[in-house]
């Protein structure tokens, strides 16, 4: 069972690598950014609420995101593992995942099921220097990929998401991967790291 989350700044290659790794381990790739963008395109209530935050490059409020992720993780395809891309983005969201996994662990213990090694989460910290990120993002062409929003997203990342590096280091769940290589080279390093952890 693979349960993996990707940390790493915007433009680090989380989406590309998460999709490849999810395909390889045959688990769903769950991107909170993609789900939000679908909601915006469909003009759902969630989409309306999230749009102003996405356009500015701010984080969408935790309760909206956590409800959305909880609903997604309850779907049958996510019962045997998942790769989360873009979640958690702050300590509150990380605590939600921790709580969710410990609840699952308790349920499995009661049923006497054999579970993944300490039911743990694998956390990938994909590292890429800031100047490489900006040029990658500018060439991507998403509506929130303009210079001003990019700078703001990087700042939000440094302030709110980077503290998760310490959070997961303390829990010995963090694997740091150098993301400043070809897609193939990064995928290979990731597979090796994941194989060693589960
Ligand atoms: P991404 O596609 O991961 O770059 O996300 C695009 C935008 O969606 C972000 O700039 C946020 O506005 C929003 N978003 C995605 N994931 C989250 C999350 N876990 N928490 C809050 N906002 C999020």
Describe this structure in words.
The chain has 198 residues and is of the alpha/beta class. It folds into 2 domains: 2-28 and 81-197, P-loop containing nucleotide triphosphate hydrolases (Rossmann fold, 3-Layer(aba) Sandwich), CATH 3.40.50; 31-74, no CATH class. The chain contains 9 helices and 5 strands, in the order E-H-E-H-H-H-E-H-E-H-H-H-E-H. It has helices at 14-25, 32-41, 45-56, 62-73, 91-111, 130-138, 147-161, 163-170, 183-197, and strands spanning 2-7, 29-31, 81-85, 122-127, 174-178. Strands 2-3-1-4-5 form a 5-stranded parallel β-sheet, with helices on both faces. Helix 1 packs across helix 9 (183-197), helix 2 (32-41) packs across helix 3 and helix 6 (130-138) packs across helix 7 (147-161). The longest helix has 21 residues, at 91-111. The chain is globular and about 50 Å long. Bound molecules: adenosine monophosphate. Adenosine monophosphate binds at residues 10, 32-33, 36, 53-54, 57-60, 65, 86-87, 89, 93, 153. Residues 10, 32-33, 36, 53-54, 57-60, 65, 86-87, 89, 93, 153 line the site of adenosine monophosphate.
Summarize the structure.
With 198 residues, the chain is α/β, with parallel strands linked by helices. It has helices at 14-25, 32-41, 45-56, 62-73, 91-111, 130-138, 147-161, 163-170, 183-197, and strands at residues 2-7, 29-31, 81-85, 122-127, 174-178. It has nine helices and five strands.
Order of helices and strands: EHEHHHEHEHHHEH
Shape type: globular
Spatial extent as radius of gyration: 17 Å
> Helix content range of the residues, please?
55-70%
Q: How many separate structural domains?
A: 2
Please report the number of helical segments. Answer: 9
Sheet of most strands: 5 strands, parallel
Instruction: List cofactors, ions and other ligands.
Output: adenosine monophosphate
Report the CATH architecture of the largest domain.
3-Layer(aba) Sandwich
Poorly predicted runs are none
Q: How do the strands of the widest beta sheet line up side by side?
A: 2-3-1-4-5
* Topology-level CATH name of the largest domain: Rossmann fold
Helix-strand category: alpha/beta
Mean pLDDT: 93
**What's the CATH superfamily of the largest domain, by name?**
P-loop containing nucleotide triphosphate hydrolases
For the terminal residues, how far apart are their CA atoms?
7 Å
What's the CATH C level of the largest domain? Alpha Beta
Q: Oligomeric form of this entry?
A: single chain
Q: Would you report the number of β strands?
A: 5
What percent of residues are in strands? Answer: 5-15%
